[in-house]
Amino acid sequence: MTVPAPRVEPGGLAGHLDGFVRAVREAGIPVGISQAVDAAEILTVVDLLDREQLRHGLAAVLLQRAAQRPTYDVLFDLWWPLSDRPRPADDDEPDGEADGEAPESTLDLPGDDGVDLAALMREQLLRLLLEGDPEALRRFAREAVELLGRGQPSPSGQSYFSYRVLRALSPDTLVAQLLAGLLAEGDRGGLAEQVARQTIRERLTALRAAIESEVRRRTAAEKGRDKVAKNAVRPLADQVDFLRAQSSDLAELRRAVAPLARRLAVRLSARRRLGREGRLDFRKTVRASLGTGGVPVVTHHRPRKVHKPELVVLCDVSGSVAGFSHFTLMLTQALREHFTGVRAFAFVDTTDEVTRFFRPGADVVDAVSRIGREADVVGFDGHSDYGTAFEVFADRWASAVGPKTSLLVLGDGRTNYRPPGLPVLADLVRRSRSAHWLNPEPQRLWGSGDSAAHRYGEVIDMVECRNAAQLAEFVTTL
Known about the structure:
Blueprint: H1 13-26, H2 33-45, H3 51-62, H4 69-79, H5 117-131, H6 134-148, H7 162-169, H8 175-182, H9 191-223, H10 225-232, H11 247-274, H12 282-289, E1 310-316, H13 322-336, E2 342-347, E3 351-353, H14 364-374, H15 386-396, E4 405-410, H16 422-431, E5 434-439, H17 453-456, E6 461-464, H18 468-477
Parallel strand pairs: 1-2, 1-4, 4-5, 5-6
Antiparallel strand pairs: 2-3
Helix pairs in contact: 1-4, 2-3, 4-10, 5-6, 6-9, 8-9, 9-10, 11-13, 11-18, 15-16
C-alpha cells in the first residue's frame, strides 16, 4: 500500500524546503549552507511519495548528533504532514477509496447512537497492536484524534488534545491481553516474555507518538505551524537554561559533561606540550653571536617551566542556582577524572571544601546530595552571602590560589544586598594565574535588584553561561 504523499504548500517544493531548513536552524540545530544544498539534492534522489524515506534522507544531511533527532522529527511532522487527500487505490483496497472518495473508517461502528465508541476503539486498538502494522497504527491514531480528541470549540477554532485520546483508550491497560495474544502456552517468565514485553512497549510508544503527531498536525492547521513549533519543540539539551533545568534535562546534560572535560583536558595538555619556549637567555645569545660578528643569528631561550594544570572551583550551591551548580559540579567531577590538581569549594553564606566528595569514579549524583547533607556551606540563614564566603575562603585556604592556579567562580552574583567582598575577590584574582566567573543569568539582568555582577565584572572576567552551549564555547576559548 502506498503511503499518502506529504502535503506541501503552494509556495513550491524549494521554498518549502527552505522554510523547513530555517525552522531546523531556529530550533538550535546548526545547519550550514552546504548542508542546505545537500538537502535540496536529497529531494532529487529519494522517492517523495515515501514519507519515511524523505524523513531519513533529510536527517542524514541535516543532523550531526543523535540527540538532535527528536527535535528534528517534530519539525518534520509539522512541515511534511501526511496529505489529507485519500490514499491511492491498490489492488487489495476497496474501490471506494479511489477516484477522490474519502476512505472508509477502519472502525465498524453500528448505527446505534448509544454505542460505546471508546470500547469499540479499544478492541480495534488491541487487534492492531497484536498485528504490529505501523501504518495501520498511524491511520488508527488519526481517527482516534478525530473522534476522541476534540476539546471545547473556541473562537480560534477546534482544539485537539492527546491526553483525551489516551485517557479514553487507556492503552497501558491492554498489556495483559497483548501478552496473552503474543505468547504461546508455557512461554511465561522466560526470554520469550521479555521479548514480548519489549515489543509491546515499542508499539505503545509508537502509538503515543502517532497520536501526538496528529494532534500537532491539526493544531498547526488551525493556529499556524510556526506557533505550534515554538511550543512543541523542546530546546536541545545544550540549550536548556541551567536555572530552568528539570531532572530529565540534567540527565541529558550529564552526557554533555564528559566531552567538555575531555576537550579541556586535551587543550591544556597540548598547551603544555606545544607551548612556546621560555624567556630569552640574553647571556647565551650574546655569547653565540660572537661567532657571527656580533649579529644574534641564533637566539637561545631558557627552558620553559611546565606546570601541571591547577584549577580551583568556587561554586554557589544556594537554591536560586541549584540547576546551574548541579551541572558545574558535574563538570568538576569530570575534570577530576583528568587532573589531580582540581580543588572544589562550595558556599551559600559560608564556604567549605568539597573536593573529597568528587573522588575519581564517584557517583556525581551521590556527591551532590552529600554536599547538601555533610558540607558546611550554611553558617547563618541559608541565603547567599558572597562577601562572607569569599572572606572564609581567603582565610582558611589562602594557599589554594597561587601563580599556577586558574580560579573559576560559579554563581549568579546576587548578594541579597549584603557586602559583596570586592577587595577579597580582587586579591584572589591578582594572586591567580587566570580567573573567570561563569554567570547563569542573562547579561541584561546583571546589576538589577540585588545583583552585584556588574561590580564583580570590574575585577574578574565575567562570562554569561546560561546553557551547555555557552559553557562549551567558554571551554573552547579558555
